Amino acid sequence: MATQFKIDGLKASIEGKEILKGINLDIKGGEIHAIMGPNGTGKSTLASALMGHPKYEVTDGQVQLDGEDVLDMAVDERARAGLFLAMQYPSEITGVTNSDFLRSAINARREEGKEISLIKFIRLMESKMKELDMNAEFAHRYLNEGFSGGEKKRNEILQMMMIEPKIVILDEIDSGLDIDALKIVANGVNSMRSEDRGFLIITHYQRLLDYITPDYVHVMMQGRIVKSGGPELAERLENEGYDWVKEELGIEDETVGQV
Ligand SMILES: Nc1ncnc2c1ncn2[C@@H]1O[C@H](COP(=O)(O)OP(=O)(O)OP(=O)(O)O)[C@@H](O)[C@H]1O
Ligand SMILES: [Mg+2]
Q1: CA-closest residue to ligand 1 atom 30
Q2: CB under 6 Å to ligand 1: residues?
Q3: CATH of the domain at 189
Q4: What residues have a C-beta under 5 A from ligand 2, the ion?
Q5: pLDDT band at 259 (very low <50, low <70, confident <90, very high)
Q6: So what's the pLDDT on residue 258?
Q7: Which residues contact residue 62 at a Cβ distance below 8 angstroms, ignoring those fewer than 6 apart?
Q8: Matching NCBIfam families, A to Z (predicted)?
Q9: Looking at the domain assignment, is residue 149 inside a domain?
Q10: Is 129 within the bounds of a domain?
Q11: Residues 104-158 pLDDT 10s
């Protein structure tokens, strides 16, 4: 059965302040959904809440991946179930090399006794790094430590390509990328498109969507998805900004705002 990711009425708070006010999204395998929206409207909060970041308290709603209750799972269980998030600001982890991290992440998704062999792992990593035009030294560097902004983003895509998740959430994967790197990252994403994998791509710019064609575009404001459409919606936002959406919906302050 094709992958199914269902978000139903998801609400989440931080320190008692409600940020997500009822998110509904249905992502099927093979589909690419883009989320756009002004700053501070809850996009990264949605990504973090889905992955189970401890800071965000889910207060209502349901999230299911292939019929399994995601909200019931610990962070590592979510990753094992096939959820993957490339964060807007990836963390640096001193003491863990990129290749150690990747190998553990791959093996965490496999059953005991079916771990990837070292030789296969190295071959796979080398070929994916080549595809992403990454220097081989990055395998042995500490995870994200001292990586430039663009190098971190490329490394997130390397992780995605090696871990082969079912649901890929990319939070501003295009920020900080030069034009060539943007194309390389987009090619990486496109090479991973498949019937059993769904994508949720958070971005501010049509530019990324020129290379990765979304099936659906959603606009987030005030912690909700307020408008959905096809790729043409992203084009209109790029040309006209968000004022027309706010006018149409009678929204004055699009941010999550104060409680
Ligand atoms: N850990 C936190 N502590 C306090 N406030 C937070 C925290 N995380 C998010 N917020 C607040 O929640 C709101 C939504 O933040 P979020 O990062 O989800 O926005 P965003 O839509 O991703 O914005 P951007 O486009 O700028 O990345 C903001 O007002 C932010 O300050
Ligand atoms: Mg954000």
Answers
A1: 40
A2: 14, 19, 37, 39-45, 55, 88, 255-256
A3: 3.40.50.300
A4: 43-44, 88
A5: very low
A6: 55
A7: 6, 7, 8, 9, 10, 69, 71
A8: sufC
A9: no
A10: no
A11: 999 998 888 999 999 999 999 999 999 999 999 999 999 999 999 999 999 999 9
